[in-house]
Specification:
The protein is an alpha+beta fold and 138 residues long. It has helices spanning 2-29, 106-117, 123-134; strands spanning 31-35, 45-52, 57-65, 77-84, 99-102. The chain has a 5-stranded antiparallel beta sheet.
Length: 138
């Protein structure tokens, strides 16, 4: 039985590490992801909430794996649909009709969402503020 205790301890540590990685991802992107309630056998779905704390705005969309008819378990397409505050999402995501795309495009989708939620400021002002903050100033 000692191997069971060791195995449980290792699994517990892995879960803790995964939770820390998820927290870093959420902080880095301003995006929280949680599993959406399942509606039948449509594939896994996740609600994504993007929050811009500075502007006090948030938006939410659902990202789903599109089930494949192939015998392979590899999912090739994703479906995305707005859930809340679509006006803050990119124009192509504001339509209530879901969009379907290859999963290799997920990074581009996230980039577009973040660019829409976090409008670009004057980069010189942002760089100056970063340098001031690094020096401990206000």
């Amino acid at each position: 039985r000692p191997w069971k205790k060791r195995h449980i301890s290792q699994l517990t540590e892995q879960v803790k590490q995964q939770a820390q990685l998820l927290e870093v991802y959420e902080i880095l992107t301003g995006t929280k992801i949680c599993e959406a309630s399942s509606k039948g056998n449509d594939g896994a779905s996740y609600n994504c909430t993007v929050i811009n704390h500075d502007e006090k705005i948030a938006s939410q969309f659902r990202l789903s794996f599109v089930p494949s008819n192939k015998a392979s378990s590899v999912v090739g397409e994703m479906r995305c649909e707005p859930i809340a505050n679509a006006q803050f999402l990119p124009d192509f995501m504001q339509d209530p009709e879901p969009i379907v795309f290859e999963r290799t495009q997920c990074a581009v989708l996230l980039k577009n969402v973040l660019m829409s939620m976090f409008k670009e400021e004057d980069t010189d002002d942002v760089q100056d503020q970063v340098e001031v903050n690094q020096l401990g100033g206000e």
